Amino acid sequence: MAVQRLVNAANDAAKPDGPGSFETAVQELQATLSEYQQSVDDYGGAKVFHSSDRKKLLSLPFYMSKRAEKPVPKVGQKEWDMFKEIYGVEWSYYDHLKFDPEEKITEFNYEKFIPKNVLKKIDTKSDSFKRYIKVANLNSKTKFEQHKDNQENFSGMMGIIT
Length: 162
Known about the structure:
This protein is mainly α. 57% of the residues lie in helices and 0% in strands. It is elongated. The two termini are 16 Å apart.
């Protein structure tokens, strides 16, 4: 709870303006890193770190800056079963697909999606119809796309539910 308050305070605080140039950014980074190095050297008062411990502490900012991946459930975990219970399919249901076989509506195949009696009443050459088709394409999702969204959402929740 205390950590969340600190994160919220940091997120709500006013953000400083970015550096004006690349050289300024490099100088600021070097100053920050040397300040961090000094704080590692001063840590613990008279206590002296072993050289390997000091190297690990000095490399910590670089390891922490690497991209963190969201967790993924594994077979046998309760989260794997929970995903199937929530979404109705297993996590790996679409793993065998190389591409999405399901079609979405486009201006080249709209006849498959819109009934012919409705098409007779519409001007299919107009810009508004083409915009409608594009919006319909963007707003619709295939089962594969929906499954990928479900996986992304569930990965985000895994840190909370575990």
